[in-house]
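I'm curious: can you give me some protein's one-letter sequence along with its backbone structure tokens because I've never seen that pairing?
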Amino acid sequence: MSFSIILERFIEQSPIPVMARSLIERTFNADRINACFESVDENPQYTRELLFSSVFELMSLVVLRAFPAIHSAYKSKKNDIPVSITAVYDKLSGIDTSTGTLTLKNTYLNNPTTNTGQH
């Protein structure tokens, strides 16, 4: 099956949603989010089983109103997250607000689509 034919149809009929999804997936991919989280010097947390990208994804689902709460977002992704909901809440409560700010800043600065050399 040729996915390029299907993709072309979506691009022709709804180019903005396709571009937006592509940009979001490229910008906020799990490896980039985890690397940013680990690079924050002020971060007192460590990663064992629950990756920051998983917490980021859960929060994104709530912020973008796909789910009304972390618990319902967690239930939808339970097979992909190897820890209990308690561990998710513990991780969330330990993330300092500066960690989120610095993670987003690093994501922006290290993204070739937004990095024009002017900081």
In short: The mean pLDDT is 80. Residues 29-109 form one domain. The CA atoms of residues 37 and 71 lie 22 Å apart.
